[in-house]
Amino acid sequence: MQGHSLRLIVDTGFPGILLYEERLFAVIPGLKLKGSFERVVIGGRVPVKQVVLPEIDLGRKRRDVSVLLLKSPPADLLPNIDGIVGVAPLNLQRISFDFGAIPRPMRSGAEIYP
Questions:
Q1: Topology at the third CATH level for domain 8-89
Q2: Strand blocks (E) in 43-99
Q3: Cβ neighbours of 86 (radius 10 Å)
Q4: Count H helices, E strands: the chain?
Q5: Which candidate, 30, 32, 70, 111, has a CA 20 to 30 Å from the CA of 21?
Q6: Taking a C-beta distance cutoff of 8 angstroms, is the pair 85, 17 a contact?
């Protein structure tokens, strides 16, 4: 993304891209946004900002992408994760996951894979 890599969790049931706002701007301090912020609500309760990020490499194409920005969770919850991406925005016909990595505990006691 604009010369920087983001670490995203793939959520096969999520239809778009959700990025943690403070973490995103920490990774890309000079992040360029296109258009203005539009405040929307997802899930009936969660307020987010909807913005367009220009010229993003996603899947096999570079394009402008509409994303949701959400307030970042506490630093110890999902550490080193910048957001969530669904399968649809990747515009791929197949996706392969490698679940052979060593799990790390999350604050909740569940496990995530690097």
A1: Cathepsin D, subunit A; domain 1 (2.40.70)
A2: 46-58, 61-70, 83-85
A3: 16
A4: 1, 8
A5: 111
A6: yes
Residue type for 17, please?
I
Tens digits of pLDDT across the chain (114 residues): 777 788 888 888 888 889 998 888 888 877 777 666 666 666 677 778 888 888 787 767 788 888 888 888 888 888 888 999 888 887 766 777 766 665 555 444 444 444
Alpha helices, DSSP H only, in 5-113?
21-27
User: Tokens for 14?
Assistant: 């999520």
The structure's pTM equals 0.72
> Which two tokens mark 54?
């220009």
Sequence-distant (6+) residues with CB within 8 A of 47 are 39, 40, 41
Do 75 and 20 contact (CB within 8 A), yes or no? no
Tokens read off for 91:
């515009």
Cα separation of 24 and 7, whole Å?
10
